[in-house]
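Page 42, continued from yesterday. The earlier attempt failed because a stray header line got pasted into the input along with the sequence. Redoing it now with the clean sequence only.
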Amino acid sequence: MMTSVDTDLMRVLADPLRLRIVTLLARETLCTTHLVEETGAKQTNLSNHMKVLREAGVVDTEPCGRFIYYRLRPEVVEALAGQFADLAHTARATAEAHRKRPCP
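This time it went through. Structure tokens are written below.
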């Protein structure tokens, strides 16, 4: 069965810096200082992007002293990947069945 792709999550991940952050967090849990070093973004800009990722449910936070560590929530990425897999399966079935809507 085809599911629609989560367009809100796609918008969140479409930003190049946020995608870079997600890629970094897939490899390890990092604090803001690490993310600033890795991305070259200004701290305030990075904090704004982290807020978007938190609100979208893509990352979790973990306080550690005066630092906040960020961890990627793999189940969110897996759900999005599953939606794309369903979409690909539907497209393949459509192509194999040669389904097309006739022109008026």
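Notes: The first strand starts at residue 30 and ends at 31.
Reminder to self: strip header lines before submitting.
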